Amino acid sequence: MRVAILHNPRPRDAVGDDDTYEEYDAPETIAAIAAALSAIGIEPCPVVADAGFPARLRDAQVDLVLNLAEGSGGRCREAVPAAILEFLGLPYTGSDALTLAVTLDKAVARRLVSPEVPVARAVLVEDPGDDGALATLASPVVVKPNDEGSSKGIRLDALCHDLEAVRTGCRRLFERTGRPVLVEQFLPGAEVTVAVRGSGRGAAVIGAMEIAPAAGRSEPFLYALEVKRDFRRRVRYHVPPRLPAATLEAIGRHALVAHRLLGCRDIARLDFRLDAAGVPHFLECNPLPGLNPSSSDLVILWRALHPGPTDAYPSLVQGLVREAARRLALRLPSEADA
What we know:
There is one protein chain. The chain has three domains: 2-94, Rossmann fold (3-Layer(aba) Sandwich), CATH 3.40.50.20; 121-185, ATP-grasp fold, A domain (Dna Ligase, domain 1, 2-Layer Sandwich); 188-314, D-amino Acid Aminotransferase, Chain A, domain 1, CATH 3.30.470. 35% of the residues lie in helices and 20% in strands. It has a five-stranded antiparallel β-sheet with strand order 10-9-8-11-12, sandwiched between helices. The chain is of the alpha+beta class.
């Protein structure tokens, strides 16, 4: 069985302040995924998701595509590779093009899950002069790109405490991207990310992880890009989250509802934040969660759930492929031999 690993490689010189390629995959990620597939008798075939990938996939004669492609461009960039795979009639892991489009657009995702799932108050600023509604939000707020992931465009100064700082943050993002900006009420409670596996009403929560500052909560904590890049020093991950059982149950329930409403398949990671009263609110959904073997939140969560002398990373990748194979009625090599 041949499985293509469709991905966008991160340029080796993509360092420093530039976050353009933050979501793209490093060589060690593709190597780790390939090793995990080889371990269960699958022949991995890395394919770069550029303009020539349809021809390369045809020539490779693969049975399944492990889709990690982030694409390039605007709010539909993640959906384009999946749409091409569907056009080519190639089965692939993960969510379809519609889900990949609506989840990257945070404002659309919020509208789809609400009111079934609570969301923080927010204002979508669609052009630099369209900021009259900002005064309806109480400070502090977070200024973020409406259609990006991996904390792209979200630096520590995205947490704003007055209207002028909000306007400055919006102008900076407009100048950089030319696309709408989401200004969202900052919620002071714990931040929790939830991993969900499966599709539709058959999906189940894998686990939840609290993302907390290493230095405690003396100041508001924002999981900004600088923090993520320095996670070993600045972040502490708690599995399970240090929250009451009723709160954890509510977060898990909300995650499953949002996963279903957004149409996620196979695996997704959903982020929540608690308000001052301890009520969890949906922030966003990532149906293409990162699989970096050392730094991705999903991987950190998975390893915490499966401690032991043997690295749990291969089982995460293999589980993703098995989930897709069940959905697509494909037989993996290990199952064919059983």
